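Hi W.,

Here's what went into the run:
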Amino acid sequence: MMETKIHIDKDIKAFMDECLQRDNPKSYLIAVLHKVQKKFGYLSPEHMDQVAQYMQIPTSTISGVATFYHFFRLQPRGKYAISVCMGTACFVKGADKVLESFKTELGIDIGETTQDGLFSLENSRCLGVCALAPVVTVNDKVYSNVNEKQVPDLINRVRSEEE
Amino acid sequence: MGKALEFYNALLQYMEKRREQSGIQDKIFVHVGSASCEKAAGSDQVFEEFQKLIRASGRDDILLKQTGCTGRCAREPIVGVLIPGEIPIKYEKVTLDKVQTIFHEHIIEGRPVPRLVLDKKTEKQYDYVVTVCSSPRCNPDNHLDVASLLRQTIEKKGVDPDSVRIFGGGCFGLCAKEEVGHQHVMMVFPEKVLYRFSNEEELEEIVDSHFKENNVLEKYLTKTDFITEQFFSHYGDVAFFNKQTRLTLRNSGLIDPESLTDYVHNKGYEALAKALDRDDSKFIIDEISKSGLRGRGGGGYPTGLKWQNALSYTDDPVKYVICNADEGDPGAFMDRSALEGDPFIIIEGMTIGACAIGAEKGFVYLRAEYPLAIKRLEKALQKARENRLLGKNIMNSGFTFDIEIRLGAGAFVCGEETALMYSIEGLRGQPRIRPPYPTESGLWGHPTVINNVETWANVPTIMLYGADWYSRIGTKKSRGTKVFALAGKVTNTGLVEVPMGTTLREIIYDIGGGLDEGHELKAVQTGGPSGGCIPATLIDTPVDYESLAGIGSIMGSGGMIVLDDSDCMVSTAKFFLEFTQDESCGKCVPCREGTVRMLEILERITNGDGTMEDLDKLERLGRLLQNTSLCGLGQTAPNPVLSAMHNFREEFEMHVREKKCPAHRCGNLITYKIIPDKCVGCTLCAKRCPVSCIYGEKRKPHVIDQDACIKCGECYNACKFDAIDRI
Amino acid sequence: MKKVKITIDDKEIAVAPDITIMQAAEQLGIKIPRLCYHPDLSLEGACRVCIVNVEGWRTFAASCATRVSEGMKIQTNSPEIRQARRDLIELILDNHPRECQLCERDGNCELQNLAYSLGVRERLFEGRRKRHDIERSSPSVIRDAEKCILCRRCVRVCAEVQGVFNLSQLYRGFNTVVAPAYEGPMNDSVCIACGQCVNVCPVASFLENRSTDKVWEALADPDKHVVAQIAPSIRAAIGEGFNQPAGTAMTGQTVTALRRLGFDAVFDTNFGADMTIVEEAHELVLRLEKNEHLPLLTSCSSGWIKFLEHFYPEMIPNASSCKSPMSIVSTLLKTHYAEKQKIDPEKIYMVAIMPCVAKKFEAERPEHRTDFGAPYTDAVLTTRELIWMIKAYGIDITNLPEEDFDTPLGFSSGAADIFGTTGGVMEAALRTAAENLTGKPLDNLDFTGVRKTEGLREASIKIGDKELNVAVANGLTHAKEILDKVKSGKKTFHLVELMACPGGCMGGGGQPYPPYGHHVLDREVLKIRGEALYHIDAKKQVRKSHENPFVKKIYQQLLKTPGSDKAHKLLHTSYHAREPRGIK
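Here's what came out:
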């Protein structure tokens, strides 16, 4: 484990300062957490402690919020976050098989990250691109009409790009 | 003229001047869809390729634009080419190769490429394309089958019938206009003119003049200033679209969603200007009430009444309006499309609502999963502020209002209004008991009006064209149109806006193009995880709030999923319950605990371990959740299960009693067997089997070891001789 | 306000328009079953047990949260409602350990009682259930998330009454768990150890960290000199554990019971209270003279002190440095008393019986250790734990003769008795401080201006030519309020009594659970318990701490004067800012 203390950076502090000037400043908590996650990839207790002190919101409240919303991650994510859409349309068109295939190929379960830190696997709620089902996203890139047989290839492609 | 209208006129003039200066009307217009789904299909690359080609050609009369989503997701990316004076052409599934072809053949050489055209399965070019209104709703006392009549007339008059393409379109939203009255209308391309006529004689006159002589017959022309004109002139030739009535989506796919100029050109902000000048809450609320608009988020609460409630709390000077864009239903993407395609209409709608109840602040609660919608809305808000359409003293009227975007963070329950408000307040999005309703005590305890995206999008339309006009669309209790996200086993998936009262059959078959060959409609799921499964036998049910509720489903926010004979109703019910169970906020006992127990029972049934008592328990728990859950989501969570059990009882019982899944979806209930007579011993199945449980000598029938089989279906899919039976 | 007419179970009744269906039904003698509801906390409406049928409503209404309205027709019972209530309770039970007989709340569990009375006799829906380990890091409170039924009473009491916000629901749906931030250990959190979560918990998800085992062990050890001390509030509450009405004073019986249990000596925390007052009054007079660190903040409540250290460390200089009565008795026991009695202090085992779970934390503070490294207080038992021990032994306390405390640490003034209720410390301190300031004996000892059970009250008290502004706060939300007022400088205060728990020690986190059908922290019960103490005080001959002859003797023999070096060494302590910092 790396023992680096993570500090919330200037931009986020500036954003919090801005929020504190507005009406109902504490209502910006979710917005602040979005920013922290965007910057650091996840929300650590250290981040949340700092937000708590800065915004004067109890840590338990922040922790409650961070764990309530599925969008927030409490663990660092792989460099490539693979997300299989499990919306209705995708499910009907076999997203469950696609997900299984990713699990087998990567040897990880949902919410886990591969040992090399390269891939993490998630399932998402409907992304709203149902007509292209099943849909898989790798970071921000969307792959449509994916079937389970294409999964190894997709992973290899990312791996080779990495090398 | 009031101050706001003066402001509006000046704005319009300025914007129109800008359009003219850009010479837009004489230019060749190429538009590339750019909604999230289009981008997923590669529309960005297509756009860039066009950009390159146009630049390389050195032509300055070609205008390239991004537009929002038209709703034809399965055919994306869609590219439209409009050459002045010609029939507009839409191309489907455009790839980089096709860009080359389209650019060179159509844009440069002026020859459209029929084989690439959207939904057109012919190679033929037409001289005319005619869209006729064939909706009996508009013309109840004078119904004519205009499409066949026109065809007969054309033949009678000796016009080459192959040169005219005739569509029986849906409602234009025009018939209700006073000046047309009970007449028939048709739109003719490429001239883009709209004729009205009352009888066959008049139609013959039109055919003589227009189709034979190629002369537009002025005396039967009607004012083409109708709400969907722009949309129809671009898309009216495509069956998928011309059966629709696009009111809230009228600009989607047509305008550059980031361009205020485009929005204003399409009558944007005229409604707000009028409303601001009246400066009369009662007038606005009366209009909305008279229009019969009901909440499009699912509940169907009368919008005017909601606003009236909020207005009635006069003691509190602070009020809020909220746009609920936390579209969480799996399979629904109406709100995303609307925000990506036409963000200004939402802003205008909210501003009118704020003016009505006296709110100075509004929020759009938007899913974080919709980055493009966020970006577009942010830009639109910025432009509105820059042009004094938001902020202090809007349009010189003295009215102050601004909108802030608040992002969700992945919680379906935040679509529930009290949970949504907690989320805006920065807390866990867990619903609270109502009353008090948000209109009494909402955000930070102040009166708050929450409407969803589609509801807000209806507001400018109503204010612009009037409640009387609007209320004539749809059915008696459900006025106006409804947007659906059509998905599942239907040929044309995508966004559909139809008048209330349109039947499921019309949506699925006429617009959706029916199911793929060889498959039969089994059920339609509407309302997402709060809705129900409607069996195929009820396909002629009109889509409106009461009719859907009457058959155990709900309108919901507009998800519509078509299921065919390969879908298992138990699995489908289980799927929805998995969703609600996972999304349950955990606050109240019935939803938190009950959904888990119901899911366990469904898992038992699909695994072949269910008992008949399980079915009773499922029903008992379902009723418990409906009667005792804290919020609407918990109360409706059992709907998919209860309605599936009600309509497909025998399928549930088959799973329980016979341990059989008729749709062959439930893995544990399937057996794969090799038919010895058909098996040639090619060994392909054995090679494909991931657990190597198929054995046999080469060129002799193989056998599956049932104990080892994991029922993945690989062998079934691999066999080229139909020698594997799935039971 | 105009009354509204409603019908409940076919009976018409006119009620105030601002009450709920639940309250209206009570007027007709119908106590609708309930679970997450608590009258002092915000409405949750989550358990759904209190559902009723309102004519014309699509779903059942939660009666705790639904206001009555004109013409409402309500049905509190029907086969459907009873089945729904039964099923709801079963759903909770299905996700709850099946180990009632091993549970500390067996027989006094709200869930168990509901399951019984609503007729859950078989499990229809049972399936998987949540698994969590018991969290025992805190010396005061253990958290057993596996038993939690997510009524959120603890979260609400922690936030709304205590202003601590240590607990929150984390995750969601079936995975929801109540815990401090990041699901971290209680001991590393801002938990102030007050134990109100234990009090309000309907089941056994929060409990005191038990000390009974080690006390039994000490009692059985012939080498140990095991001594008990009992806090003022115990005597007025212990009877409730033996079916006695609230407010039954059982001082003598408790002393006898402790001797029967095998304690070698039984002392009274009240003695320490008298010492505290003498020291604290001296501190007050000094600070008034120097006009510094005012107001003086009392320091007897260990939950409050922990709160101060987490949330208001900048105000630590204002706190009285005087040890709590418990620690004073323990300190004197292992020093002065041991020396006098010629007992090896290392063999003395001090058991403090407290209404409080924060005292368990206080006993473990490193500041309260002897020169030889042992804690001055070896074990702290709550009132509840003592009740269990007495029952376990089989002592019939109600029929015991009354015995007296041992001396010298067993004699106390009436001023010490009222320590157990809110405002009592203030009143006791004023009795002594007033005489210190004026040099004249007081005519009237009852400072009734501070005798109320409200969470926060202010008073001005004339002593000689001085006007003292005093305030009394119980429940830390009220403490926050008064401290913020002090910090704002809007008003000058001289003395503020602060107690962590609602009603002071009477509502402590270690007090007996109410009998079934009554809610915990009932203001009426707290008041009755308090009145019992005022009654004891009024009957005493010595009613001022400084007049306690044994207190005087200790000063003569050992400490010389209040505030002396020796007094500081033995009777005073220090506080320090604590991490994690609380958010005010």
